Amino acid sequence: MKHAPLRGVLFDLDGTLLDTAPDMHAALDRLLLEQGREPLPFADVRNHVSHGSRALVRLGFPDLDEALHEPLKQRYLELYAADLCAGTALFPGIGDLLDELERRGMCAGVVTNKPAWLTDPLLQSLGLTPRLATIISGDTLPHRKPAPEPMWLAAEQAAVDPAQLVYVGDAERDIAAGRAAGMRTLVADWGYIDATEDPNAWLADARLPAPGDFWGWLDGLAEERQCLAS
Question: Residue ranges per domain, the chain?
Fold first, then answer.
């Protein structure tokens, strides 16, 4: 697929832009204690965070019937919302990446499956909302990732052609959504990727070990375009 020069970057939220695992783990531990169960170690929970509240409740209560998970999920969300930004922060290097994007006149945005009633206050608390050209949450449209519709809406709001955007995420559905929308895609290796997953099978354009590696990848694109033009 031929792409025009890059004009912006879209990020997944949990596990890509923000390290939300401390607060999501804390909410799960509070729920487990309420239900008379032992808390789970952070290391056992971290790489499940990108799969959302339903996956976390399944992790904490694997022996319960599926029908009993819904009320527990709702209680989990209440506990999480009560301390939404106690330990959450930008991943190391993300702040510098956002600064450099702004300096170069490139836009940034978020496309997440997290619902807006959690996404919006979280981004506002961290002062990120004014810096983002678009924020698409899991309930903005009837379809969520891996469907491409949220990606297309983000491109429309940012006034950038999808082919001039790259989507960065830490889950297979992120890469699938970006590819389906006609965007370049990058795997955030610093995110919540379980050892049982194989990001190489997701067919992203590249994998980034750290946010700062973005610029080396972008320089590689420029060199590739120069070679093709010569």
Answer: 8-19+88-229, 21-82
| Per-residue tokens: 63 | 């022996």
If DSSP codes are grouped into helix, strand and coil, which group holds residue 19? strand
pTM: 0.94
Q: What is the DSSP letter of 14?
A: B
Q: Please state whether beta strands 206-208 and 184-188 pair in parallel, antiparallel, or not at all (unpaired).
A: parallel
pLDDT per 10-residue tile (average), the chain, 230 residues:
82 98 98 97 94 93 91 96 97 98 98 98 98 98 98 98 98 98 98 95 98 96 65
Cβ atoms 101, 9 nearer than 8 A = yes
Question: Other CB atoms closer than 10 Å to residue 126's CB: what's the count?
Answer: 16
CATH class held by domain 8-19+88-229: alpha beta
What size, in residues, is the chain?
A: 230
Residue-level pLDDT at 221: 85
Query: Catalytic residues, which ones?
Result: 12
